[in-house]
Design goal:
heterodimer, A: Uridine Diphospho-n-acetylenolpyruvylglucosamine Reductase, domain 3, Enolase-like, domain 1, 3 domains, four-stranded antiparallel β-sheet, about 25% strand, B: alpha+beta, Ubiquitin-like (UB roll), DNA polymerase, domain 1, 5 strands
């Protein structure tokens, strides 16, 4: 591996200063499961890695039924699915954090890092989008908040500017009669990168038959994770019939803008968007009804 | 970059050494400490051959910088057997012939230990899912899965 400096930051201020000072020549290190590979494979040429794991705000995992979830940007996946309250409140997020890599990766990798790495195929991002998560960012001008769907701008690119780092994600408290689901297609059973993925969140009415509101986001079919508000608009107020769910799947197929690559063709990915979105919607609806 | 002092507990003994930030925990174990039981496979987090237990969590040591291990506790394959002999997991791997070339075996055994520490009586599905991050190109996994299930059974019986 090329030489670089290791800078352990103890506070947000220290991290932001180090990030500002060196600009594009530094990156944040949390779990390291993406960045260490990128440096080793010469995909990034850096002067330093700023280790943010010891900063208290980035390690906070707190949930309450009234305030929702505060998820520090460096909290590893295993702590999220290891928390019973969080697991029952956000099953669609748990779907993702328990399928990112194997247990070895989940012991280190964080959802915040998954977001900042900004891979179009990131499994962690569609659930954040459909659960209406917001990002708390710290930088030279203090704190700012931004919605997750606005965070990624291109493959590997985010809205973070010089000196800024992601501190935490906030997910609102779950609404009654609502649930989420994230599923992806991979050729293996485990340990692979999504050919396509679909994350959904639905809220049903008191009869559990009509959809009050819904959110859908796709992975691996556009340069960034793809939020599709038009599907939510279409579903709102409709009975959750097979035809309606199938139509939502068709909308996902038509909205996807995939490329063909080693993992799959554009046509296959569009097809998968329809199937996965239909299944994810049915899965989330089933979760509401079984709760 | 200047080398940094890194101290950690390795298989129960405190070690202290000078590391460059770019050196992975895997490199340091094998090249500075000559603990060559931990293997380098893919060196990018896919194969699990380099698995060690870091502060109680199973990790790929190729994806941990040596300097990140400062102050931690590390268990490698060399720390699995006891003074009395092989760990039951190791014995069962032998009994079931759960290895051929053996390169993946230290990683599999460390991962199996991490699994059974956390879940003493796993189902076959749990074993398969937990070991999904370990790749073997020889055995086809079935013997490995059987060895782990048998080790769990034996350890449960011994604990009673």
């Amino acid at each position: 591996m090329k030489d670089f400096a290791y800078v352990p930051a103890r506070t947000l201020g220290e991290a932001a200063s180090a990030l500002y000072e060196k600009g594009d020549r530094v990156r944040v290190l949390a779990g390291g499961t993406d960045i260490i590979v990128q440096v080793r494979e010469d995909r990034r040429d850096l002067d330093a890695l700023i280790d943010v794991k010891a900063i208290p705000e980035l390690n906070d995992l707190s949930y309450s039924a009234s305030d929702g979830l505060s998820l520090g940007a460096a909290v590893p996946c295993y702590r999220i699915y290891g928390d019973e309250e969080v697991s029952s409140a956000y099953p669609g997020l748990i779907d993702a954090v328990s399928m990112i890599g194997g247990v070895q990766i989940q012991g280190r990798a964080s959802v915040g890092g998954n977001l900042c790495n900004a891979s179009p195929a990131a499994d962690g991002i569609p659930p954040l989008i459909v659960y209406e998560a917001t990002c708390r960012v710290y930088g030279p001008d203090g704190f700012r908040e931004i919605s997750v769907e606005q965070f990624c701008t291109a493959p590997g690119q985010t809205v973070l500017s010089r000196g800024e780092l992601l501190v935490a994600l906030h997910i609102p408290a779950p609404k009654p009669r609502s649930s989420g689901r994230y599923i992806r297609f991979i050729p293996r059973n485990e340990m692979d990168i999504a050919v396509a993925g679909s994350g959904v969140h639905v809220t049903l009415d008191s009869s559990s038959s009509r959809i009050e509101s819904a959110r859908v986001a796709l992975s691996a079919v556009a340069p960034t994770p793809l939020f599709l508000p038009e599907i939510g608009d279409f579903l709102a107020g409709k009975e959750a019939t097979d035809d309606v769910i199938a139509e939502a799947g068709e909308m996902a197929r038509n909205a996807a803008r995939p490329i063909s690559d080693m993992r799959g063709t554009a046509d296959q990915r569009k097809h998968l968007c329809a199937v996965l979105t239909r299944r994810a919607l049915n899965g989330a609806i089933q979760r509401v009804r079984e709760a | 970059m200047p080398r940094q002092i890194v101290r950690f507990n390795l298989n129960g003994e405190d070690v202290e050494l000078l590391c460059e930030p770019r050196e992975s925990l895997l490199e340091v174990l094998r090249e500075h400490l000559t603990m060559t039981g931990t293997k380098e496979g893919c060196n990018n987090g896919n194969c699990g051959a380099c698995n060690v237990i870091l502060d109680g969590r199973l990790v790929n040591s190729c994806l941990v910088l040596s300097v990140e291990a400062d102050g931690s506790s590390v268990v490698t394959i060399e720390g699995i057997a006891t003074e009395d002999g092989l760990h039951p997991i190791q014995t069962k791997y032998l009994e079931h012939a759960a290895l051929q070339c053996g390169i993946c075996t230290p990683g599999f055994i460390v991962a199996s230990k991490a699994l059974l520490d956390e879940t003493p009586d796993p189902s076959e599905l749990e074993v398969r899912q937990f070991l999904a991050g370990n790749l073997c190109r020889c055995t086809g996994y079935d013997k490995i899965i059987r060895a782990v299930l048998d080790a769990a059974k034996t350890m449960q019986a011994d604990a009673r």
